[in-house]
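Human: I wish I could look at a protein chain and see how it folds. This is the protein in question:
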Amino acid sequence: MKIALVSDCYLPRLGGIEVQVHDLAQRLVAQGHEVVAYTVTPAHAEQYSGLEIIDGIPVHRFALGLPYDVALNPMAISQLRVAITNGGFDVVHAHIGVISPFSMDAVRMTLGMGIPTAVTWHSVMSWAGPLLRPLGFIKRWAADGAALSAVSRVAARPVASMAGAGHEVVVLPNGIDTDVWTPGGPRIGDEVRVISAMRLARRKRPLEFFKVMKAVHREAPNVRLEIAGEGELRAKLVRAVDLADAHEWVSLPGRMTRAQLHERYLDSDLYVAPARLEAFGIAALEARSSGLPVLAPTSSGVCEFVENEVNGLLVDGDEGLVAGLTRLALDRDLRESMAHTNRTVRPKQAWPEVVRLAEDEYARAADLQRRR
């Protein structure tokens, strides 16, 4: 099968969608498919458009070279139309984030061309529902035969409400290489090491998370915190740590590679995903696959791979995070029970299963087009 993957954001930018779409491309190729990616993300400085091969995947870039490498080009759709028309694709798979004009234009275009089209949402649109619902484009896409999916039940619910009755929204989760994110044994030591990996942005709530951890530390002084990642809130977070005189128990190492993160997970006790509108939480899944109990809000897509009181805790609000973290920090037996579950029960979101689900979506997209 020849597959076009369309995403506003792509490597070398690092983020959930960027990495997942590229990993999906590689896994599909490994299954014998032919995959081409299209994006409006520039490659590197002063290289805005053209063809690039990344890990064997042809990546066509239609970027404008805007300040701060903003992934936006209203004219890219005409270039994509030529590429799709001449490409002989069996299916187009568009990936939608918070704001994805290129991918959204692609869906409208490919449905109009009668090409089987799969659409996956990687963000939670609850906040945007009142704005998007009157536009009606999701309902039109469903009526025109798009195979709609989202990375979690949390992300799928608002899509389903806008698609309307009779239109299924499938869960197509993010994938993980369970041969890479392997668990270790129980960690020895008196400290309780809490770790989180996130973009230091408002939606991820790093400042609120630090306030939570200050409250936990007052009850459990043996707690240590490590927050890996970079972002626009780094300076404010550093200042908050300075003001709290928390350097002895807080570490902010910056962005880490996958290998570095895995090493840190193996030397930690708990993982926290504090964002309330997390569509999936790939970093949390990587930590869970590495054997760590995971704490997250009940409103988070982390519920796809964390069962409350079994391999982690799902809580309500920051008060719930404080209570849950304090409880686990003080209860070694409970921590170890949850960690043992994560070490012995592998997550369902391993890449072979995710690729199978993606192939099912492509078949569903073709069937929906045939029925029109």
The CA atoms of residues 42 and 69 lie 7 Å apart. The first helix runs from residue 16 to 30. The chain has 13 helices and 14 strands.
